[in-house]
From TrEMBL:
<keyword id="KW-0808">Transferase</keyword>
<feature type="binding site">
    <location>
        <begin position="212"/>
        <end position="214"/>
    </location>
    <ligand>
        <name>iminosuccinate</name>
    </ligand>
</feature>
<keyword id="KW-0963">Cytoplasm</keyword>
<dbReference type="GO" id="GO:0008987">
    <property type="term" value="F:quinolinate synthetase A activity"/>
</dbReference>
<dbReference type="Pfam" id="PF02445">
    <property type="entry name" value="NadA"/>
</dbReference>
<keyword id="KW-0004">4Fe-4S</keyword>
<keyword id="KW-0662">Pyridine nucleotide biosynthesis</keyword>
<dbReference type="GO" id="GO:0051539">
    <property type="term" value="F:4 iron, 4 sulfur cluster binding"/>
</dbReference>
<dbReference type="GO" id="GO:0046872">
    <property type="term" value="F:metal ion binding"/>
</dbReference>
<dbReference type="GO" id="GO:0005829">
    <property type="term" value="C:cytosol"/>
</dbReference>
<feature type="binding site">
    <location>
        <position position="229"/>
    </location>
    <ligand>
        <name>iminosuccinate</name>
    </ligand>
</feature>
<feature type="binding site">
    <location>
        <position position="55"/>
    </location>
    <ligand>
        <name>iminosuccinate</name>
    </ligand>
</feature>
<feature type="binding site">
    <location>
        <position position="38"/>
    </location>
    <ligand>
        <name>iminosuccinate</name>
    </ligand>
</feature>
<feature type="binding site">
    <location>
        <begin position="126"/>
        <end position="128"/>
    </location>
    <ligand>
        <name>iminosuccinate</name>
    </ligand>
</feature>
<dbReference type="InterPro" id="IPR023066">
    <property type="entry name" value="Quinolinate_synth_type2"/>
</dbReference>
<feature type="binding site">
    <location>
        <position position="186"/>
    </location>
    <ligand>
        <name>[4Fe-4S] cluster</name>
    </ligand>
</feature>
<dbReference type="InterPro" id="IPR003473">
    <property type="entry name" value="NadA"/>
</dbReference>
Length: 324
């Protein structure tokens, strides 16, 4: 065992007698820190977060906070976006390996080549990408505002949309705009199994099937509502339906059930055999309460973005925030 692991184990061991959540809250206050958590985080993290939301809501919170430290309980591109918006603040991520299949599908050198091959295009990138990719973009979007962002591009201007081909195809369908799509997918939303969903629907014939637009087209075709995580939560709150089959990362069910305790929420099944019959993002679940505590205590791992990349990446992010 390395010294560092031993120290961490000792630290957690001592600490296990006390309440992890209370200690995180104490440290947060002492350090004037804020915890921003994505809906896909485990319930214990959502409970102690100052704000729980989707990528757009989290970016907006990051832009308005006066905390000295932002602890981002989410994945790397989200923490990086918070750092780009707040260069003077320290931004921490409990596990630096918490990546995203969409961000990884779009390496900067290949994306540069793609843009150069298609001159004259407006480059719209889904927020699930690295700072380098954002720095090559004209405007960023989230699943909440992608339609609005695409509609803001003057008619007749060709568009590149990256990295999510499923979201891109859905927005093309919604707006009627042709776009050149990068070939990236979310491994979680790609994994939903249409045959299992249809079978589940036979068991719950009254249930509405609702889906995130990162899901593939055959899944979206059978959905009665398609929207961002926040959109899905609002839908189950305002719709008169009593049962919903929900196709997005299963972490959302915690917040959703709090909002509609009287309704039945069923996670959509994935293709692989899985014990919980639902989809979980392994990247999102790399964050744990223990790592969150250690991150706040030791003020590491920290996110860094070079000035050169930041100065370019902030422009398309601000364009998106202004449009939202
Ligand atoms: S759920 Fe998909 S899009 Fe979201 S972080 Fe995980 S891999 Fe990326």
């Amino acid at each position: 065992m390395t010294t560092l692991i031993k120290e961490r184990a000792k630290s957690l061991n001592t600490f296990s007698k006390t309440n992890l959540a209370e200690e995180i809250l104490r440290l947060k206050k002492e350090k004037n820190a804020i915890i921003l958590a994505h809906y896909y985080q485990e319930p214990a993290i959502q409970e102690i977060a100052d704000f729980v939301g989707d990528s757009l809501g989290l970016s907006q919170q990051a832009a308005s906070t006066d905390a000295d430290i932002i602890v981002f309980a989410g994945v790397h591109f989200m923490a990086e976006t918070a750092k780009i918006i707040n260069p003077k603040k320290r931004v921490l991520l409990p596990d630096l390996n918490a990546s995203c299949s969409l961000a990884e599908s779009c390496p900067p050198d290949l994306f540069r080549e793609f843009i150069d091959k298609h001159p004259g295009h407006t480059v719209i990138t889904y927020v699930n990408c690295s700072a380098e990719i954002k720095a090559m973009s004209d405007i960023v979007c989230t699943s909440s505002n992608a339609e609005k962002v695409v509609a803001s591009v003057p008619l007749g201007t060709p568009i590149i949309f990256a990295p999510d081909k499923n979201l891109g195809a859905y927005i093309m369908h919604k707006t009627g705009r042709e776009m050149l799509l990068w070939d990236g997918v979310c491994i979680v939303h790609e994994a939903f199994a249409i045959d299992k969903i249809l079978k589940l629907h036979q068991k719950y014939p009254q249930a509405q099937f609702i889906a995130h637009p990162e899901s593939n087209p055959e899944i979206l075709k059978i959905a009665s509502y398609i929207g961002s995580t926040t959109g899905m939560i609002n839908h189950v709150k305002t719709d008169s339906g009593k049962e919903f089959i929900v196709a997005t990362e299963a972490g959302i069910l915690y917040k959703m059930q709090q909002e509609v305790p009287e309704k039945v929420l069923i996670p959509a099944p994935a293709k692989e055999d899985n014990t919980c019959a639902c989809s979980e993002c392994a990247f999102m679940k790399m964050n744990t309460m223990e790592k969150l505590y250690l991150c706040l205590k030791n003020e590491t791992p920290e996110i860094h973005v070079s000035d050169e990349i930041r100065e370019k990446a902030i422009i398309p992010i601000e364009r998106m925030l202004n449009l939202s």
